[in-house]
Write a structure and sequence with these properties.
The protein is built from 1 helix and 9 strands, in the order αβββββββββ. It is mostly beta strands.
Length: 193
Amino acid sequence: MPQARSLRHAGALARRLGAVLVLTLASACGGKDGDGGFDLGTGPGEFPKVQGYFQRNESVNAVTCAPQPAPAGGDIAMGSYSLSEPVGFSQSGSKVSIALLNYPNNPPDTGTVDMTGKVTLGFQFSRKEAALREGRQFYVDVSGSFVLNRSTDGNRLAGTGSYQNVLREGSATAPVFTTCSRTSTIELTRTGG
């Protein structure tokens, strides 16, 4: 019995020392965005690889606006359209970002990849429309989110996107004039990396 008690004591001590070591490493390694110093996605081989270069093909549906239609004009396309462009994914563990290679000055969309290969990305920014809408100036809060699923071989990502444009007339802080939303289907095919 004394030997069993001493083994239990040693096991408890080892667990306490392990917890102290983890907390010490977490504070020594730092962290950001309130993650407590842990980045669970930096271990080798933990998350499916999505980094590399892809050709993005997206079919974007027309917007629906509520509570009222947006006036004609402006520089946000309101109808449906398709686009095809090269993109580049960078990855650090579970954290991913996607850059539009034809527009290197645009900030990348950022997000995560989970253990199943599901990629969740998004962006948000505000801007003043360069063109007037029926002689009226609008400011727009633009956001988008995307959910893509990685093929088993990693050569294809496919899924859906959703976009929202919140229009304000006259100033960036004016009451919301209307909110326009749309969805899309997306397919990315690996071209390198």
